[in-house]
Specification:
By secondary structure, the protein is α/β, with parallel strands linked by helices. The protein folds into 2 domains: 52 residues, 2,3-Dihydroxybiphenyl 1,2-Dioxygenase, domain 1, CATH 3.10.180.10; 66 residues, 2,3-Dihydroxybiphenyl 1,2-Dioxygenase, domain 1. The protein contains 2 helices and 8 strands; from the N terminus they run E-H-E-E-E-H-E-E-E-E. Strands 4, 5, 6, 7 and 8 form a 5-stranded mixed sheet that branches. It has a 3-stranded mixed sheet with strand order 1-3-2, covered by helices on one side. Strand 6 and strand 7 form a beta hairpin.
């Protein structure tokens, strides 16, 4: 029998400051909690779950104080490994205006990427408070070819 993966269920971020990332993902980005969140002094109990709509982000505490390797918007320059999280928006310009002054942008301009099939994206990357890179992206996939 072949393995049948259904969908991506969750992903994890490890941080040494759970409340700071909770404030960013829940407060700044306005994403709801998946499970109730309670601040605690017990290190093993410092975690949160943020509902991304189609996947859950778990934020777990670490006592490691090393910093995140900050990725760039240029894939050819980055080391191998997982790269970013992307949030789909209906209007990229409105999303940028809403986030301006609340996030640290990776670059000053919007990037447009086009595939020969007619699919194209407009996006702009930013960092969360720990330095994890993510994008707001406006996909245009109406002409997506069947695979």
């Amino acid at each position: 029998m072949a393995l049948k993966l259904k969908r991506m269920d969750n992903m994890d971020i490890i941080t040494n400051d759970v409340p700071r990332l909770v404030d960013f993902y829940h407060g700044t980005l306005g994403l709801p909690f998946f499970l109730p969140y309670e601040e605690t002094e017990v290190p093993e109990d410092r975690w949160a779950s943020i509902d991304f709509g189609n996947v859950v982000l778990y934020i777990f505490h670490s006592t490691n104080v090393s910093s995140v390797y900050r990725r760039t918007a240029v894939n050819l320059e980055d080391p191998v490994g997982y790269d970013t999280i992307a949030f789909e928006v209906e209007d990229l310009d409105e999303a940028i205006a809403e986030l301006d002054g609340k996030v640290e942008w990776v670059q000053d301009d919007i990037t447009t990427w086009r595939h020969p099939s007619g699919v194209w994206y407009r996006y702009r990357p930013f960092f969360d408070p720990d330095g994890n890179m993510m994008y707001v992206t406006e996909p245009h996939v109406e002409n997506r070819p069947a695979v």
